[in-house]
Amino acid sequence: MENLFEQLTVGKLTLPNRLVMAPMTRSRASGGLVNALTAEYYAQRAGAGLIITEGTQPSVLGQGYTDTPGLHSAEQTEAWRRVTDAVHAAGGKIVVQLMHSGRIGHPALYPDGALPVAPSPVASGMQLYTLDGMLDHPTPRGMTLDDIAQTVRDFADAARNAIEAGFDGVELHGANGYLIHQFLADNTNLRTDGYGGPVENRIRFAVETVQAVVDAIGPERVGIRVSPGSTYNNISESDPETLYTALVRALAPYGLAYLHVMEASDRHLTERLRAEWPGTLILNPHPAGHEGPATPEAGAAALRDGVADAISLAQLWLANPDLPERIKADGPYNTADPSTFYGGDHRGYTDYPTL
Ligand code: PHB
Fold first, then answer.
1. Annotated catalytic, 352?
2. Which of 25, 286, 342 to mutate to test the pocket of ligand 1 (most atoms within 8 A of CB)?
3. What is the pLDDT of residues 18-62, one digit of tens each?
4. Total tally of structural domains belonging to the chain
5. Is residue 135 assigned to a domain?
6. How far is CA 92 from the centre of its chain?
7. Domain of 286: which CATH number?
8. pLDDT tens string 97-121
9. Is residue 90 part of a domain?
10. Residues contacting 18, CB < 8 A, separation 6+
11. CB of residue 68 inside a 6 A radius of ligand 1
12. What pTM does this model have?
């Protein structure tokens, strides 16, 4: 697995290895503010070639879970500074994932109890976890053209805040059934205007958001994550190959830092996207027949096959702050404890031991 330890240039960054820490919601940012524990958690994992933070809302209505961090106020921006400083002091590189949840939101998360927004008023059928139990997501409010324009601006403003906070760049969350994905997928986007209908229209929100964020901070600091064919959060795509080929073709001219693909067992589609994408491709490898979290072995194979340039892993990073050393030593690995994934304190967060 030596190929995981080769250097890689991504945008203007030189990564010492090809092991990327995937974004993971941890729900410990009370009031939307990251804190000293957040800084410790990420700094412990600075041996990653690149850290991608947990999903971070670019606006109040972008929030989808309890105690996720924001990047839409001066106070939130300032709070992140302590995290980026800690990671940089430890020799790491870190980008923030900007995640707008769209219909995967709930009035209980918003100060004024507003409805979540989405391309179309189609309920998720999912629920919000709260300390008071599970709450059904309501039917979201369909976005007006003004809402769309404002949301694109919110992404750009959050990207500016990210640079202000010391991040090396941003990743736009276009995967896993959140807002950008809700525009892409034909079961969540029933619009009859220029943002809905044929594939050229369904990719418009993603492309306009990329354009605005590129204008704000420069293409070499922008990545985007997609999950072709994933059904997470009750997404259903009738045409993943057409859809993602069109999206990747539309994004190719921008010269982005990277495309991050969360594979849903369709290696053929990953290869198609690899062929269409001129830049760095980060893969969360889930080849057919591999159940469970992505593995370094699957990652090394994908690098060897030329399908990807870097590999993102989630649970292994969560539970193994010194993951590169453990891969070099061929393990052993700590096992991630699902009971401490979301919320709580340092337990299951900063107390996973190193070798
Ligand atoms: C989650 O918190 O369940 C979650 C968040 C973002 C993702 C996937 C899952 O992309």
1. no
2. 25
3. 999 999 999 999 999 999 999 999 999 999 999 999 999 999 999
4. 1
5. yes
6. 18
7. 3.20.20.70
8. 999 999 999 999 999 999 999 999 9
9. yes
10. 3, 4, 5, 6, 8, 49, 299, 303, 309, 310, 311
11. no
12. 0.98
